[in-house]
Amino acid sequence: MSELQGRAALITGASQGLGKEIAATYLRHGASIAICARDAALLEAVRTELAPLAGPGQRIVARPCDVSKPDQVTALVQWALATFPELDVLVNSAGVYGPKGPIEDTDWAAWVQAIEIDLFGAVLLCRALVPHLKRLGHGKIIQLSGGGATSPMPRLSAYAAAKAAVVRFAESLALELADHEIDVNCIAPGALNTRMLDEILAAGPDAVGADFYQRSVQQKETGGAGLEKGAALAVFLAAAASDGITGRLISAVWDPWQDLPAKQAELAGSDIYTLRRIVPGDRGKDWGK
């Protein structure tokens, strides 16, 4: 349980759900952590709750931040680096579903706000921290993506658009940082029973669609994928074992990510675990090129 010994991580969206689970798991695996979220009171309660998990030489600190606000992100990163000068891991977990319903009926300001949090927030954190990681000479950036990146999500279009964009941004950033030993990857954590699922159930089938609502009801009843799977993958992607694995969208539930170090050469020369356009030849058709 010491894969992250000596590492320090900044984790956004850490006051609940998967972000909180990642924070707890990082502490158990030896890292020091700086956590942030918008709700100051809830964030402080989480810091107090998780503090006993910190072992000798570890620390957990917290600061409220709205990741969609550039000035708050800049202040957050400056504070985190002053606290942990060798900070080398960023986990962008902050996210919202945003408005639910047909695009023509959704509140435009709410739609834009979802993009600002889910996409711009991740980009702003990277922009603020990358110069430090370059000076450090290594680093790990982990983005939380999910189903919105790999399949359409009608009536949740802001969330789906943002999550797809996050993956393409991560793939692009991975190439930008390839010469600096900074790995950038995305996690698809699976269907989780968190506050976001509760939002879907509260919105009802008229807002989110009957099929998605029914799947959400079944997910609530069966327990979902389990937060621990996404957190375990987040540990792997922050640890030295994953060095050189970059620019990938990896499923915590379906992909054999524990075996990827042995397949790194094959992975590096392929489009496995990336977003791509499917062409006719991929489906056995002879039309087009």
Let me know the average pLDDT.
Answer: 93
Assembly form of the protein:
single chain
State the separation between the terminal residues, measured CA to CA. 50 Å
* Total E-strand runs: 7
Beta-strand percentage range: 5-15%
- Summing up helix and strand content along with how strands pair, one would put the structural category as alpha/beta
Helix percent reads 40-55%
One letter per element, helices H and strands E, the order comes to EHEHEHEHEHHEHHHHEH
**Poorly predicted tracts of residues:** none
| Biggest sheet, spatial arrangement of strands | 3-2-1-4-5-6-7
| Shape, per Cα inertia axes | globular
Radius of gyration using CA atoms only:
19 Å
Total number of helices: 11
Described by strand count, sense and barrel closure, the largest sheet is: 7 strands, parallel
